[in-house]
Every structure is written in structure tokens, then in C-alpha cells.
Amino acid sequence: MDFDPDGSIDHAGPVPPYRQLAGILAARVGRGDWQPNRAIPSEAHLVQEYGVARATVRRSIAVLVDQGVLFVVPQRGTYVKGPALP
Predict the structure, then answer these.
(1) Is 32 left (phi over 0), alpha (psi -120 to 50) or beta?
(2) Sign of CA dihedral 63, 61, 34, 16
(3) Residue at 27 is within a domain
(4) Does the predicted model carry a pTM greater than 0.70?
(5) What is the extent of the structural domain holding 69?
(6) Residue 64: band (very low, low, confident or very high) from pLDDT cuts 50, 70, 90
(7) Burial of 13 (0-12, 13-18, 19+ CB in 10 A)
(8) Predicted pLDDT of residue 86
(9) Is residue 53 in a domain?
(10) Which CATH number covers residue 70?
């Protein structure tokens, strides 16, 4: 399923909000909003921007970490995964 990088969360839709947010964030990475090895906005910022619970943001980030789109550095934040080093 393709998501609009400028989309919003449809709380009444059939797709769970965490999946919608994961799709939107992945689309923003794909569009180049955030560069490889650079931090994405904080969880608190994403909570405010998308009007979802912090647990929803964390679950969305976990999905994208599992997909290899993002990586988390404890105490530092969540970053866009860059290309693999040779």
C-alpha cells in the first residue's frame, strides 16, 4: 500500500494508525525529507504532528526499523538508515 508523504492519519480507516504512520514516514524518507544517517523528528514532535499516541509512534518506528528504513541510537534518537558500507 502506498502512502502520501503529506498524508494524515485516518483514525476511522481500516488500516491501523501505526501502519499508516509507518507508511507516511517511509514515504517521507523515500522523498528525501530526511537524509541518510540524519535524525528524524523526535517522538514528541511526531505525536504532535500526527495526533497519535506515543505508543503509536514507537510501534511505527519499530516497523520501520524491522524493515531496515530506520535505526535507533539509544539516548540519541532515530535515524534514517544509509547505504551499506562496502
Answers:
(1) left
(2) positive
(3) yes
(4) yes
(5) 17-80
(6) very high
(7) exposed
(8) 57
(9) yes
(10) 1.10.10.10
